Amino acid sequence: MGYAVTSLCKKCMLNPDGSLKLGVEQEVVMASAEITNEDEFILKCPKGHSIETFISVSKFALLFENGLSAYNQGFYTEAFSSFYTALENFRLTFAKSFMVQDNKMDNALVNQIFKTNKNSLIIYGAFVSAYSIFFKEAPDTKTSKIRIDPQFIKIRNDVFHNGYIPTTDEVAELGHNVYSYIKRIHSAYATYNFSESEGKQIPFPKILEYQFSSEVYWLEQRGITHNDIHMGTNYEIISSDLSSMSLNSIVLEEQELESFSKLLERNRTNQETFSTYHYTK
Ligand SMILES: [Zn+2]
Prior knowledge:
Elements: E1 2-8, H1 10-13, E2 30-34, E3 40-44, E4 50-55, H2 59-72, H3 76-102, H4 107-116, H5 120-135, H6 151-162, H7 168-188, E5 190-195, E6 200-205, H8 206-222, H9 226-231, E7 235-238, H10 260-273, E8 277-280
Parallel strand pairs: 4-7
Antiparallel strand pairs: 1-2, 1-8, 3-4, 5-6
Helix pairs in contact: 2-3, 2-7, 2-10, 3-4, 3-5, 3-7, 3-8
């Protein structure tokens, strides 16, 4: 099981300059690809077109969505491991973002560092130091306001190494704990810009800025600009975040968070209406 991404086939629908082909209004052709660990992939349509595509949606949001879909379909062990992988991918993304956004390191260097250091303990160490330097407090301690309940570390080891089947309550609790953890850190790790119309400081998540810098880096590597995406048919960027985590909204307090059943409901609605990415078997 995994995630597929689907998008209108630009080559079927558009002229090479990006204008709409005459007479195609009735014929909607979709191109699709399987989402992998990479941020880039090739969208393919049934007529044989290929489009080089970059996905500018945080991977941890997709992994979390995968967990919700699996839970909704009754695959609880799969849901458990998706939620846990979403957590680990979030910590990796935080560490990378801290290096690029706060320490002005090059995207290529940061990617290279984590290509050669894939071990989850190394990644956790990078996250702990980035988090501690940024927030001036340690993550995941007994007194931390935002933390993963230590019981899940034991359950995770039992699931991954001892064939333990988690109960539905354990999966739901982990899911909500991971959601709360990601959502609150993602919201607090922000740039604050003064808004004259609202008369206050408005937070903007740094991870979304980091995502955008990765997108710009991908364009630079190909010698193209956003204009080439809009006015041409060879490249595509998928950036609309339609995931149930709603990373564009900011949540600073526990009570502002959604309930787990609300997230499950949102995922069910998304699966029916998503045109961008959806769950596949
Ligand atoms: Zn096509």
